[in-house]
Specification:
Length: 198
């Protein structure tokens, strides 16, 4: 059985803020979450929508170099609860940007990082997985997530079973500097789904 959770990341980028801001407030974007397919486990991440609201280009922050800008980082708390102990293996689903991250709007991307993972209240590590669930690479306390790729809770190179999984997820939309030079209201969004694999 598969368990799905969808999170929307919304943002509006403006060049001429006064007139465009009023127009964007009149019709906010809405993202409807996908209902879980597996009723035995519950998966939640607080809000199903991260809304950055309306921002001008001047409000964006540098994202590591002068060629990229960001709307800023937001944090979610991911929680999974199951009635039985099971492997916690998940896959991130969504559209892929040119850099391999989640696509944001037409030219941006979303950096997604998972950290501080607890299984049944105990700290564990994370390991990337193949599409069939085979562990690949080394263990880490935090992991950058990319669409169509999986990850699992591990300890000493082995999958960890548990009834509960808790972690923090950091979300950061990033644009190339050239994509922020727009002449009209631009509404960007991304949608991601975390899938609990069996």
């Amino acid at each position: 059985m598969k368990m799905l959770m969808t999170i929307g990341v919304l943002g509006v980028l403006l060049v001429r803020s006064v007139a465009a801001l009023a127009a964007s407030d009149a019709s906010p974007a809405i993202v409807q979450p996908v209902l879980p397919a597996d009723t035995q486990c519950s998966l939640s991440a607080g809000s199903s929508v991260i809304d950055y609201g309306s921002q001008t280009r001047g409000q964006l922050q540098a994202a590591g170099n002068s060629q990229t800008l960001t709307l800023g980082k937001r944090m979610l708390i991911l929680s999974i609860a199951c009635p039985y102990a099971r492997n916690m293996w998940l896959t991130l689903r969504g559209n892929v940007a040119a850099n391999g991250d989640l696509l944001y709007g037409a030219r941006g991307s979303v950096r997604i990082r998972i950290m501080d993972v607890l299984i049944d209240g105990h700290t564990v590590q994370l390991t990337s997985t193949t599409s069939s669930g085979v562990l690949e690479g080394g263990e880490a306390s935090d992991l950058r997530l990319q669409p169509q790729k999986g990850f699992a809770a591990t300890q000493n190179g082995q999958l960890v079973k548990g009834k509960t999984f808790n972690a923090r997820i950091e979300v950061e939309p990033v644009f190339p500097e050239s994509a922020t030079r727009v002449s009209t209201l631009q509404r960007d969004e991304a949608s991601l789904t975390l899938e609990l694999m069996k």
